[in-house]
Write a structure and sequence with these properties.
Elements (H helix, E strand, L loop, with lengths): L2 H5 L18 H8 L3 H10 L20 E3 L2 E2 L4 E2 L2 E3 L5 H9 L21
Antiparallel strand pairs: 1-4, 2-3
Helix pairs in contact: 2-3
Length: about 120
């Protein structure tokens, strides 16, 4: 090492940063499925894994997010987290939606006229 090199301060080595990981939000999933954002939020609540058993439980649970951004603060009694799913899971979410019963499925007893009885 020459005296000039010894006098120069050592520069830190710059490391290349990895690009940030991108996640899908409720809005991204809604856009991908062609439904309103509130529908995705409703599905997450209605088909959550911890939901009590009932008629709605027959359908599979909505896929759990890969990441939760934010904090859960017990002092406020609510969660201020934002869910995120990896883009590679969009086919899984589409398959989940296709597995749901159709509109009006499980709507209760049929009226007497449709049960074969005359009124």
């Amino acid at each position: 090492m020459t005296p000039d090199q010894a006098a120069e301060p050592e520069r830190p080595v710059r490391r290349r940063r990895k690009p940030p990981v991108r996640y899908l939000s409720n809005a991204d999933i809604a856009a991908g499925l062609g439904v309103p954002v509130l529908t995705v939020k409703m599905w997450r609540g209605r088909y959550s894994p911890g939901r009590p058993a009932g008629k709605i439980r027959r359908a599979p649970s909505f896929p759990l997010p890969d990441v939760l951004i934010g904090m859960e603060d017990p002092a406020f009694g609510n969660s201020t987290t934002t869910p995120g799913w990896l883009p590679s899971r969009m086919p899984e979410i589409r398959a989940w939606r296709e597995s749901l019963p159709g509109q009006g499925a499980g709507g209760g007893r049929k009226p007497p006229a449709k049960r074969g009885r005359a009124s």
